[in-house]
Amino acid sequence: MDGPVVGAAKVALEKKDVIPVLKWVKQGDEAEVRSAFNKTLAVRTKGDDAKELADQFFFETLVRVHRAGEGEPFTGLKPAGTGIEPTVRAADEALERGSVDKLVKEITAEAAAGIRKRFAEANEKRKHADQSVEAGREYVAAYVKYVHYVEQLHETAITSAHHEESTEPTAHKEHHE
After folding, report:
1. Which of 58, 74, 93, 101 minimizes the number of CB atoms within 10 Å of its CB?
2. What is the pLDDT of residues 29-72, one digit of tens each?
């Protein structure tokens, strides 16, 4: 309930203008959102309880359609104050500041620390890998953790870059609608 999609929905309802929310949905989904918006406006006039229920219907419809457009499931709206994932909050703050430098520094530092930690564990266990089968297995487990972490970071960077080049842009994966 604290995120930008529901925030845009509140503005749209206040202005009685659907335009502020349409940027959050794909063009092919616009008719469904417009229909839900019009139904919501009609029901909102029937009293406070009806207004609250209609608004909730519109928020849920909008977020569901938005998430589907990202290829993500709708898991319900999180209550206000639930908390936004720190990484998402940092990304939003970077946009508000108009600079991504702090975010890049933080994410890069976290990735580097993760690589260094897994490397150190694998490297230390590698020194003793030939002492016993158990020590060898401990090395292999640490090696797999290290290599998979590096692979995952690299794959995410490459996949995201290629995805953005080949499709229309979408919002972040796990939202704070």
Report:
1. 101
2. 999 999 999 999 999 999 999 999 999 999 999 999 999 998 98
DSSP letter, residue 3: S
Same domain, 147 and 103: yes
Q: Does the pLDDT at position 172 exceed 60?
A: no
- Give the separation between CA 168 and CA 27, rounded to whole angstroms: 11
Contact (Cβ atoms closer than 8 angstroms) between residue 8 and residue 20: yes
- Which whole-number Å values give the CA distances from 119 to 20, 21, 116, in the listed order? 48, 46, 5
Cβ–Cβ under 8 Å, residues 177 and 63: yes
DSSP per position, 64-103: HHHHHHTT-----PPPTTS---HHHHHHHHHHHHT--HHH
| Tens-digit pLDDT profile for residues 68-121 | 998 989 988 888 877 778 888 889 899 999 999 999 999 999 999 999 999 999
Q: Considering its fold, how many domains does the chain have in total?
A: 2
Distance of CA 123 to the CA centre of its chain: 34
Instruction: Return the pLDDT at 160.
Output: 62
Residue 76 lies in a domain: no
